[in-house]
## 1
Amino acid sequence: MPKSRCWTFILLASLLAACTQGPSGSPAAKARLAETNQDFRLIINSAKAKVFPAVAFIKVVQQDYGVGEKTSREISGSGVIISPKGEVLTNWHVVDKAIEVRCLLFDGRAMDAKVLGSDKDTDLALIQLLPASAPGATTQPGNLAEFNYAKLGDSRKLQEGDFVMAMGAPWGLSRSVSLGIISCTKRYLPNTSEYSIWLQTDAAISPGNSGGPLVNTDGEVIGINTRGMMAGGDMGFAVPSETILPVITQIREAGKVNWSWTGLQFQPLKDFNRNVYFEGNDGVIVAETDPESPARRAGIQPRDRILKVNGKAISAITDEDLPDLRRYLGSLPKNTPAILEVLRGTSKTPINITLTPREKGQVEGDSFACTRWDCTVKTINQFDNPDLYFQRKQGVFVDGIKYPGNANSSGLEQQDIILKIDGQAINTLADLQNVHKTSLGTIKDKPRVVVQVLRNGLMRQVVLDISRDYSKE
């Protein structure tokens, strides 16, 4: 029996004994309850002492293009040191688009940090503390005696009701710890659970706790706090260590996680939400395949049931089983055929699927701020902008509109796909950057440019007037 469950049982047994063996206010009952509470406090304090000194308060200067111009803003979050050389585990969204990262440690030291790598799909990132950046410091990364660090535990051992602590820096208040239990060990959140199921806890997780550790009563990090819901009671969600460990390994090796892309969309065998139930308890149903994906090229069809991958039996009974399956398929080697055993109708058919020539790779396009045009643009990415990708496989779209500004006044809109500018085709971000540079050099003679855009599937002409300089107003 896990230690946390054991102490939960002891606490309940003690309270029951107090109620059945005498008055609740009797000296014996009070003594038993006090002894039990003291023991539980010792367990919590011991676990806290193993991790709390490794918690880092993180401040990030982030570059943002979403408001129509390149801007910088400061955000804060949390992290936990997981190695003696100062590697800090945190969330991707804490350090996304970071141009400066600073960390405040438990002992009061302030240090710069660099991002070693991140993965948007699992919302995880690894950063490296730079001790030489601290005032008066002479040490370099790699000094094994330099940092307190926490140990990663095994989230698969958790059970509902186990006590946990959420640590971090809520609301930018440096650091804190909250106590709760595991409410659910396998929480599926639609649209946010592609590769990871979630640990749900009632330990308070507030804005700023993102990236901080979720800790068990053995003093091990069994999750990274990622999101919280305040409405209807405290509901916090953490990425489990089961997901974290392989992601860290790949970030250390390559600075990113290159998930293999199959293009398979799944439906569980027991789909309660859609009220659809398939016979049997093995395999997973193919709901759809993405356009131009390896799965579609291989001839996999909707309603196929995949039973095995490279001889390994797979199954997804409910939604909660899908993230593990996607993570397994996403880790398949590239440039090597995988053999799927597919049940189609009553016949079993082996189908080869090769995860090339395309891998998932970058999940977000590059951005560029168009000064004087008063908008920002971004490259179309299949995984970040699937609706735009459906309309055009390659190109640039309007990401942000500055208000007030020339783009807004001229009628450009967010999500417009830019096809041509003054008759010149725009296929890449470099194409647009060249046209933008030319337009700035000819404003006096040519203060307007004609932009052809694709908006909701229809082509439109927009005359972009850049004669007015809003930055000086």
Note: Confidence is low (pLDDT under 50) at residues 1-24, 136-145.
## 2
Amino acid sequence: MADKNSWSVYLSGEIHTDWREQIEDSVAAAGLPVTFFSPITDHEASDDCGVAILGAEPNKFWHDHKGAQMNSIRTRTLINKADIVVVRFGEKYKQWNAAFDAGYAAALGKPTIIMHQDEHAHALKEVDAAALAVTKSPQQVADILRYVIHGELAGYTDAVRAAE
């Protein structure tokens, strides 16, 4: 961690919904000392950054390769910097890059929180097995962050404890 009062969280994964904003809003509302980082979420910029900066490529493989390498500079740097890595797998698209990010974070020993719906449980079983938490919602991620940072269980009442 950069300082004992601040946590850095890298938000990896699908870019087509507002899950990042939901986590950031919940964490801000809870007053948690968290700084968030993420990949470039502008899909076109992410796809075309390599050729836009380094020059055109007539072959789509090399076009994508240049972009992937440039995006990897950001991804590797920010995952290395993160205290926690959150990886979301969305419902609509296959996020191979998210699986790579989860594996990279695990290889570095970074605590990971994985987020996906039940229909992806089988396909992501190895990713889930390496994670320290597997969630279904941005609110669950925010609640985990509240707990690990402040030891607070949001919504955990005496009635719930009595029922256990």
Note: The beta strands are 7-13, 34-37, 84-88, 112-115, 133-135.
